[in-house]
From TrEMBL:
Name the UniProt record assigns to this protein: Vacuolar protein sorting-associated protein 18 homolog
GO cellular component, one term: HOPS complex
Membrane topology classification: Peripheral membrane protein
A GO BP entry: organelle fusion
Keywords: Metal-binding, Zinc, Zinc-finger
Species: Octopus sinensis (East Asian common octopus)
Gene name linked to the record: LOC115228567
GO MF term list: protein-macromolecule adaptor activity; zinc ion binding
Record keyword Cell cycle present: no
């Protein structure tokens, strides 16, 4: 008789049974690992789609994405500035960063974006 193989998934466990042995594989918090992989491979849009329903993780991924665009891609520099404008916690550091790099256009876009974000919250 050939090998018997059955796979069952129950409560964060994957059970694999053959004619001679039974194996149990547990998976815990796989979402975190998926996000780490997507961010490490610079697949930011997929990561944002993955966490769309979790505002805290969405903001975290968006912040990492904006930082990546700011430091590596000069064509998307202005887009990163607009994203940074949505994070008031970075206000002083980001404003100083734009002043130090001498890009007054980016600083203006950042300040206008911060102002509109704060106006929407009030």
């Amino acid at each position: 008789m050939g090998p018997y193989l059955k796979i069952v998934s129950l409560q964060n466990s994957l059970w694999l049974a053959s004619d001679r042995k039974v194996f149990r594989f547990r998976y815990i918090n796989e979402e975190r690992k998926v996000l780490d992989i997507l961010v490490d491979t610079c697949q930011f849009q997929r990561a944002l789609d993955y966490v769309r329903d979790d505002p805290e993780k969405y903001d975290m991924i968006l912040d990492i994405y904006a930082e990546h665009m700011f430091t590596t891609n000069k064509e998307e520099f202005i887009k990163s500035v607009k994203i940074f404008a949505h994070f008031t916690s970075h206000f002083e550091a980001m404003a100083l960063r734009f002043v130090e790099c001498g890009d007054l256009k980016a600083l203006k876009i950042f300040l206008v974006g911060c102002h509109s974000t704060l106006s929407q919250r009030v």
